[in-house]
Amino acid sequence: MVRKARTRTGTALGALMALGAVAGCGQSAPAPHDTAPGPHASHSASPTVPAAPPTLAPGPGGLAPVFANGPRNGGRTVALTFDADMTADQGERAAGGERFDHPELIASLRRLKVPATVFMTGRWAEEYPDQAKAIGADPLFEVANHSYSHHAFTGDCYGLPRVARSEMRADVERAYTAFRAAGVKKAMPYFRFPGGCYDDAALRAVSAAGVTAVQWDVVSGDAFATDADAVAQQVLDGVRPGSVVVMHCTRSAAPATERALRRIVPALREQGYRFVKVSELIGAASRKG
C-alpha cells in the first residue's frame, strides 16, 4: 500500500508497505538496443576508463545526501523508478507460488524504449537471480539498492520490522553482495530507504556505505491499485521537470502499473518530456550545485 512516508522532514510522499504484499520486477532478455562493446570488441580504439556514477556530496555532519528531484530548469526530463521489494522473511510465500515479478512491465519499458531505475532488494535478487542479471545487463536500466531485507531504518515505519542501527550499513552492503552474486555488475551507489523512512541516524549509517539516498517527488499510487487510469492520472498531474516518480513492478501487489505505463509514457512524451535514469538527474543536480 502506498502511503505518506515518514522522513526526517516528516513529509516525503509514498512508499510500499510490507503488509502482505511487496513489489518486484520481471525478466526478459536484453533487447537489441544493447550495443555495449563485448569482450571481443576491436582493440583499435584507445582504452577508456568508465566514468564513476554521479553522486551528491555528503551533507552536514557526514550525513548521506538526499536526492528527491532534479533541476526544475534543466529541461523536461523525468525519471521513472520501480521498487523491486521482497522482505527477508518472505521466502515461504515465494516458494508457495506468489510472484513478485512482472515480466510484462519490463517488456513494455523495453518496447517503449523508456530508461528506468530499478531499486532492488538483495533478497529479491537472491530469489530471482536471472531476472536481476538481465535487468542489470540491459543499458536501458540501472539497478540501485533498496536494502537487503526491506526492513525499516527508523521506528514506526508502517509496521516494518526494524534494522538495528549497528546493522544498517551491513544491510546495505549485503544487498550489493547479493547483486554481485546474481551477476549484476554495475549496481549504482544509490539507496532508497524501505518505506521511505529515515532520520539523521539512518543517514549517518548509510553514508558509510558511500551512497546517495534517493527519494521522489511524485507518488504513482500504484501499489494495490486496480484502476490503471487513476494511477496514470496521478502521475500525469504530479510530474514537473526533473521529477522522480516512484512506482512498483509486481504481478501481485501492483497489477495496474503496466497498463498505466502505456498511458503515462505517450502522454508525457506528447508534453515534451524525455525519460532518463536517476543517474542523469543526479548528474545534472551535481553540476548545478
TrEMBL record:
Gene3D superfamilies, per the entry: Glycoside hydrolase/deacetylase (3.20.20.370)
Compositionally biased tracts (Low complexity): 39-49
Keyword Acyltransferase: no
InterPro entries hit by this protein: Glyco_hydro/deAcase_b/a-brl (IPR011330), NODB_dom (IPR002509), Polysacc_deacetylase_ArnD (IPR050248)
Keyword Nucleotidyltransferase: no
Name listed for the protein in its UniProt record: Polysaccharide deacetylase family protein
Keywords: Signal
PROSITE patterns according to UniProt: NODB, PROKAR_LIPOPROTEIN
